[in-house]
Specification:
- Strands 5, 6, 7, 8, 9, 10, 11, 12 and 13 form a 9-stranded mixed sheet that branches.
- The protein folds into 2 domains: 93 residues, no CATH class; 167 residues, Aminopeptidase (3-Layer(aba) Sandwich).
- The protein is 29% helix and 30% strand.
- It is of the alpha+beta class.
- The structure holds coenzyme A.
Length: 282
């Protein structure tokens, strides 16, 4: 195993070609395609591990991004090396085989049928007030996202592969409002306030004329169980259904009972399971 040092891109390309030809185990391919190259172009030198038929590329020390291609036979050695590097904070694999310490994560993609939109949103209780997205409160939204997601597996995916800090949440928010997941829709993305304090939010992007994407729904801990999420979700449905939207797409981990409870069985147009394996330091 050869840790660190500048990347030999010819060797990397050759390794990747071999991995693809052998149906090697990919992880974080999207990062490899996009941000890896962008960051490298910006002069942020990645660490690299190359060992025969296994390779991993760990982006700069601030982002701890892991991009991994490995032949199954080389995987244990590669994973051990990555885990020994304190810069690596999480690793995601499509198949972890017998590797210890990897947790199975089941992520569901739900599509909800907007024919079941209620006539009226469920009420929101005073002193709480819910308003369409307030751009000037985006930093508060990043704070809330960071607090709510700090200890959840869904949170890990929100800012994957980085921890959901205020900074990484702000980056994801800037991406989303800038169009990273479709056209951000401030009129059906809501903010809930207790006085001036932001205590809940939804983030919604429009994918096409019929499908909207509920990117996130979050309520601060002490405001949970009061119907805030139900109200924001109803407002979304009530606004979108008359505009010709047919479904809401939403991703959530299988164990997230609170989220699963937000949608009633009859509303579910389809569900698809994406099963992955995640190792998180500590
Ligand atoms: C999911 C979440 C937004 C729910 O917010 P909330 O304001 O507490 O939800 P509500 O009070 O509006 O409750 C909505 C429904 O879910 C049910 N529910 C809420 N929390 C629940 C829990 N922990 N277990 C089971 N059901 C739950 C309620 O009984 C209610 O059902 P009903 O309308 O049929 O009576 C909140 O728990 C949260 O922010 N979780 C962390 C963030 C997250 O995981 N987001 C989704 C990933 S993208």
């Amino acid at each position: 195993m050869r840790p660190a040092g500048p990347l030999d891109f010819l060797a990397v390309d050759a390794a990747l070609a071999r991995f693809r030809a052998r149906h090697a185990i990919p992880a974080e391919f999207a990062a490899w395609e996009g941000s890896f190259w962008a960051r490298h172009g910006a002069g942020e030198a990645p660490l690299a591990y190359l060992a025969g038929d296994a390779a991993a590329f760990v982006e700069g020390s601030r982002t701890h991004r892991v991009v991994l291609y490995a032949d199954p036979g080389m995987l244990p050695d590669l994973i051990r090396t990555l885990q020994a590097d304190p810069a690596v904070h999480a690793i995601s694999l499509s198949d972890a085989g017998d590797l210890p310490d990897f947790r199975v994560v089941e992520r569901w993609e739900h599509r909800f049928d907007l024919r079941f939109a209620p006539a009226e949103p469920a009420p929101v209780h005073a002193p709480l007030a819910v308003e369409p997205w307030v751009p000037g409160r985006q930093a508060d939204a990043a704070d809330l996202l960071s607090a709510v997601n700090a200890t959840t597996v869904d949170g890990l995916y929100l800012t994957w592969p980085d921890a959901p800090t205020q900074e990484t949440c702000a980056r994801v928010l800037a991406g989303l409002t800038g169009g990273s997941h479709g056209t951000f829709s401030p009129d059906v993305s809501f903010m809930a306030f207790d006085g001036d304090r932001l205590v809940g939010l939804t983030l919604v992007a429009l994918e096409d004329a019929e499908v909207s994407f509920l990117f996130e729904i979050a309520v601060a801990f002490r405001y949970r169980g009061t119907g805030l999420a139900r109200h924001m979700l109803d407002r979304l449905k009530v606004a979108l259904a008359p505009r010709g939207f047919k479904t809401v797409r939403f991703l959530a981990c299988g164990h997230n009972a609170a989220v699963q409870a937000l949608f009633r069985p009859e509303e579910v147009a389809s569900r698809a399971l994406d099963r992955g394996f995640v190792w998180i330091r500590g």
